[in-house]
Amino acid sequence: MNIKQTVLSLIVACASAGALAQEATIRKVLGERIPQLGKIDEVSKSPMSGLYEVRVGTDILYTDIDGNFLIQGELIDTKTRKNITEERIEKLTAIDFNALPLKDAFTIVRGNGKRKIAVFEDPNCGYCKRFERDLANVKDVTIHMFLYPILSPDSTEKSKGIWCAKDRAKTWQDFMVRDVAIPSYSADKCDTTALTRNTDFGRKHKITGTPTVFFADGSRVPGAVNAQQMEKLLAEVKSN
Q: How far apart are CA 206 and CA 120, in angstroms?
């Protein structure tokens, strides 16, 4: 190693040590002053000079170099018009599609089924019913439907009726799209623990509303997107 390389290595090592020390300072100060913040998972420099990102789980906050101020909000790059905070959260909340517990979902296949999505929905969700009507117009897609009863106790009862039905997909679509009543079920003959696992999974991965759609690349989209938006999102996943 020549002198130039040695100097560069020393500079990098010093910078790394300085960054670690700064991170430790921010952790210490925020931990002492705001204990209710909880465990800080990561501290890193943000794209804005002098501003540090503080990650708690999938929540993003910002602070100054000394931890004297804490900012809750979105960081926008005015040159590119990108929402830096939103992009960061999208990466943090992405899910490995292949790791989804598909045994706790039922499947609907339309056309060749080459395109894949997973959807978390509550049977009492009005937005979900609108979403289902639009989703019926999307072709060549495999839909893994996770019943996610989070709105009310009645949501759980309806979800159990759908899960225990002989044809889950038909019962679901009949109810959500055509307002056909859910058939009665025998609680002692049907294992509905999948619904509990779904709600546990949702809490762990911060699925806070329905519908929530996951795509094959792990990205998520909350809310009732229409058929045109869905086609656009599916095309973007394919192009990536």
A: 12
